[in-house]
Specification:
Strand content of chain A: over 45%
Number of helices of chain B: 0
Low-confidence stretches of chain A: none
Strand content of chain B: over 45%
Order of helices and strands of chain A: EEEEEEEEEEE
Distance between the termini of chain B: 39 Å
Shape of chain A: globular
Largest interface: A-B, 31 and 22 residues
Strand order of the largest sheet of chain B: 1-9-8-3-4
Largest sheet of chain A: 7 strands, mixed
Low-confidence stretches of chain B: none
Order of helices and strands of chain B: EEEEEEEEE
Radius of gyration of chain B: 13 Å
Mean pLDDT of chain A: 93
Distance between the termini of chain A: 36 Å
Number of strands of chain B: 9
Largest sheet of chain B: 5 strands, mixed
Helix content of chain B: under 10%
Shape of chain B: globular
Oligomer: heterodimer
Mean pLDDT of chain B: 91
Number of strands of chain A: 11
Structural class of chain B: mainly beta
C-alpha cells in the first residue's frame, strides 16, 4: 500500500517549456488535490477534484491545468512554465471533500524553472 | 476562509511538553480544527483533529475552549524527531483548507 505517489521527484525546466506532474493514490479515495509550497510558506491549493470526472479551481490556479484521468490518478500540467512557478508541488487525497476528512500527502515534486 | 495565527517558531528540550497555540477568531460554525506536521522534504502528515473540548490520540492532545476562537496542540515529552513545522488549519471541507506559515518547532538535546 504505497499511499500517494508523485513523479518526478525533481525537475528543471526552462521558461516556456511544458510538463505534466503525475500523482496516483491506491487508497480508493474520491477526492484529490494539488498544492504548491514556496520557501518558508504554507501550502496553497491550486486545483482539486472532488470526485472522478470533476475538477475545480483552488486559491492559485493561474498557469496550471489538471486532469482527473481516473479515480486513482490526478495530473497537473504547466503549459508554459515561468520562474514564478518554481516551487514544491504536493499532491494529496482524501476519502471525500466532506467535513472532517483527513488529507494524505505525497512526497512532493521539486520544480525549478530557469 | 478562516485565517489562523500561530507563533513563527518555538524551541524546546527533549522530554518536555510542548504547547502550540493557534488563534482563529473568525472560525465558522461548521469548521473543524486540524493540525498537520511537516518534516523537511516531505509532505504534511495529519496529527489530530477536533471540533470542541478536548481530543487525544496516541501522538498528541488538542484543547479547544468553548468559544473555539483558539486551540492548543499539546505534544507530551517531545524528542528530537518531533522537530518539524506544525500547521493549524480550520475549514469545513477539504477544498477549503488554508495552510498558514506554520510553527517551526526545534527540539534540542
Amino acid at each position: 500500500n504505497a499511499g500517494v505517489t508523485q513523479t518526478p521527484k525533481f525537475q528543471v525546466l526552462k521558461t516556456g517549456q511544458s510538463m505534466t506532474l503525475q500523482c496516483a493514490q491506491d487508497m480508493n479515495h474520491n477526492s484529490m488535490y494539488w498544492y504548491r509550497q514556496d520557501p518558508g510558506m504554507g501550502l496553497r491549493l491550486i486545483y482539486y477534484s472532488a470526485s472522478e470526472g470533476t475538477t475545480d479551481k483552488g486559491e492559485v490556479p493561474n498557469g496550471y491545468n489538471v486532469s482527473r484521468l481516473n479515480k486513482r490518478e490526478f495530473s497537473l500540467r504547466l503549459e508554459s512554465a515561468a520562474p514564478s512557478q518554481t516551487s514544491v508541488y504536493f499532491c494529496a487525497s482524501s476519502p471525500t471533500v466532506n467535513l472532517g476528512e483527513t488529507q494524505y500527502f505525497g512526497p512532493g515534486t521539486r520544480l525549478l524553472v530557469l | 476562509l478562516a485565517k489562523t495565527t500561530q507563533p513563527i517558531s518555538m524551541d524546546s528540550y527533549e522530554g518536555q511538553e510542548v504547547n502550540i497555540t493557534c488563534s482563529h477568531n473568525n472560525i465558522a460554525t461548521n469548521d473543524y480544527i486540524t493540525w498537520y506536521q511537516q518534516f523537511p522534504s516531505q509532505g504534511p502528515r495529519f496529527i489530530i483533529q477536533g471540533y470542541k473540548t478536548k481530543v487525544t490520540n496516541e501522538v498528541a492532545s488538542l484543547f479547544i475552549p468553548a468559544d473555539r476562537k483558539s486551540s492548543t496542540l499539546s505534544l507530551p515529552r517531545v524528542s528530537l524527531s518531533d522537530t518539524a513545522v506544525y500547521y493549524c488549519l480550520v475549514g469545513e471541507n477539504g477544498n477549503k483548507l488554508v495552510f498558514g506559515a506554520g510553527t517551526i518547532l526545534r527540539v534540542k538535546s
